[in-house]
Every structure is written in structure tokens, then in C-alpha cells.
């Protein structure tokens, strides 16, 4: 594991790198609004990716690096994320397919930036479909806009809502709520299997 700072338009982001012995792709994972990169579901997903031969970069947004708890506006989050993706894509993961992902707010960032960042797939952990008790404030448009394969792992009792499967989108429901701690080994297995399926067609024979 190595850690580095990456300059973005909104201050430095911190990146924790976990490299697979022979990387077949690279996965950037972002944290939730009030949490960090040590969230148990992010750690489980990162472990699964490395085991599947995928390099992982856990990305800590500039507002967290600066010690602020309140998240930055969406445009700032997206700009910082794309700056990190561009830096890593050109310097660390050159020629490898890039996948975006994250938990909660980080999953939203991954969805919104997937096209501009040329991500080949998106992993969403606990995607916040709507604020608790406010189904009229739907954010499904961010998921629906994806034109690449996506996996959503959602807790069966998540107060932020439940997306349905859709175009290019798989949804796996697991025990628990928004923190996805109910079945971390199951999450590990699901993520590893999904990565194997979506990466196989991209590999050069």
C-alpha cells in the first residue's frame, strides 16, 4: 500500500493505492459524505478487487483532507474526482481500463463522472436513491444516465431507498442498511464475481 497526494482544482486529494500483482484494470473508489476510505464496505470491495487482479485507488476528497466534515458541493466533488482520475490514468494506470466506484455520495460522484472520465464500469455501494423519507427527491437519473455496466449493492433496509435493475445495471440486495455491514464476505464475493464478468470481454487475448 502506498499513499500520495494529488492536486485538484479544489485542493489536494489523498489517494491510498492497493496494487494487484498483475493488474488487469484499475478501480477508483470514493467515500461517503461524512465518512472516509476505511468504511467496512469500501475495504471489502477493495480487497475483492485486488484479489480479482484489479489495482485499487481509495480516493479521499479534498474537503476531508482539509479536515472538514461537511461535504463540498457536487461540482467541486466531481471536478476533484476527475482530476484524480486523469492523474492516475496517465501516470499510474496508463493503458489499463478504468472503473469508477464508491459508497453513498461517492457512488453518486462515480456515476456523474463516468462518461467524462471514460470509465468502463461503475460500482455503487449503498447508492442513496433519495434522502430518507423523501422519495420525491429521487437521484435515480444519475444511475439511469450510465451507459456502461454497473453494479449496485444495497442493504435491504436502506432508508435511502432501493433502486431497481435497469439498462446495464445489476442490483444485489444484502442484509442490513446503509452501512452494508450485514454481510461483508458476501459483498466481497459479489464484487469479485462481477469484476470477473465485466473485465473478461475487455482483456486482450
Automatic annotation (TrEMBL):
GO molecular function, one term: hydrolase activity
Natural source organism: Saccharothrix coeruleofusca
Positions of the KANL3/Tex30 alpha/beta hydrolase-like domain: 24-164
Designated name of the protein: Alpha/beta hydrolase
The keyword Hydrolase is annotated on this UniProt entry: yes
Keyword Hydrolase: yes
Keywords assigned: Hydrolase
One protein family per Pfam: Abhydrolase_11
Amino acid at each position: 500500500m502506498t499513499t500520495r497526494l494529488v492536486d485538484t482544482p479544489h485542493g489536494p486529494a489523498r489517494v491510498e493505492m492497493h496494487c494487484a500483482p498483475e493488474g488487469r484494470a484499475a478501480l477508483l473508489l470514493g467515500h461517503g459524505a461524512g465518512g472516509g476510505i476505511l468504511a467496512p464496505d469500501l475495504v471489502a470491495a477493495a480487497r475483492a478487487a485486488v484479489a480479482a487482479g484489479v489495482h485499487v485507488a481509495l480516493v479521499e476528497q479534498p474537503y476531508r483532507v482539509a479536515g472538514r466534515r461537511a461535504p463540498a458541493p457536487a461540482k467541486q466533488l466531481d471536478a476533484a474526482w476527475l482530476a484524480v482520475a486523469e492523474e492516475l490514468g496517465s501516470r499510474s494506470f496508463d493503458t489499463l481500463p478504468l472503473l469508477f466506484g464508491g459508497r453513498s455520495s461517492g457512488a453518486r460522484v462515480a456515476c456523474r463522472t463516468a462518461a467524462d472520465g471514460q470509465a468502463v464500469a461503475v460500482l455503487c455501494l449503498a447508492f442513496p436513491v433519495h434522502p430518507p423519507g423523501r422519495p420525491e427527491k429521487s437521484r435515480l437519473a444519475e444511475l439511469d444516465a450510465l451507459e456502461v455496466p454497473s453494479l449496485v449493492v444495497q442493504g435491504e433496509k436502506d432508508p435511502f431507498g432501493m433502486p431497481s435493475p435497469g439498462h446495464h445495471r445489476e442490483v444485489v440486495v444484502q442484509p442490513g442498511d446503509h452501512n452494508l455491514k450485514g454481510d461483508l464476505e458476501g459483498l466481497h464475493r459479489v464484487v469479485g464475481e462481477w469484476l470477473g464478468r465485466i473485465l473478461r470481454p475487455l482483456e486482450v487475448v
